[in-house]
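Subject: design request, 163 residues
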């Protein structure tokens, strides 16, 4: 059973990630004028994050598809970084991409995230992290809805919500 769940997760990640190639942005192309940048040791993060949050936000893990509390969440408000409260996404940019993770078509401000090339799992993707605390949020792809054409595929564990 555990092997089946693992296979389903890998299939979901691969199918979700292979939909489109991402426009590559480099860190030098982005404004990272985040004043109040947060730097903590892993021991400090372990004191304020749950084990699951630590795994995803600090160790770049991924939650199981279709399991996150914000996957089908539809309230109006703002999604923030679960580690530091940095405002990342507005609810009016959230859409159901069918990939198993919360998806957004745009960030509140591009300076709030950092884009980094990710070649793990035999794929080429663009990882996004919080510009304020460095927490892993998810990945971004070029298969989103008009007008941006972008899909920010985010772990529910990496975000919180403010009405």
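Subject: RE: design request

Done. Sequence follows.
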């Amino acid at each position: 059973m555990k092997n089946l769940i693992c296979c389903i997760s890998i299939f979901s990640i691969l199918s979700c990630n292979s939909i489109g190639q991402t426009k590559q942005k480099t860190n030098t192309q982005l404004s990272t004028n985040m004043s109040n940048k947060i730097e903590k040791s892993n021991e400090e993060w372990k004191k304020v994050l749950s084990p699951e949050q630590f795994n995803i936000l600090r160790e770049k893990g991924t939650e199981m598809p279709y399991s996150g509390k914000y996957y089908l969440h539809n309230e109006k408000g703002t999604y923030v970084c679960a580690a530091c409260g940095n405002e990342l996404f507005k609810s009016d940019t959230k859409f159901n991409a069918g990939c198993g993770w919360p998806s957004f078509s745009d960030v509140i401000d591009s300076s709030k995230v950092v884009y980094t090339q990710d070649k793990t799992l035999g794929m080429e993707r663009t990882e996004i992290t919080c510009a304020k605390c460095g927490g892993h949020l998810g990945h971004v792809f070029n298969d989103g809805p008009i007008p941006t054409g972008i899909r920010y595929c985010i772990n529910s564990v990496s975000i919180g919500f403010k009405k």
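The longest strand covers residues 113-118.
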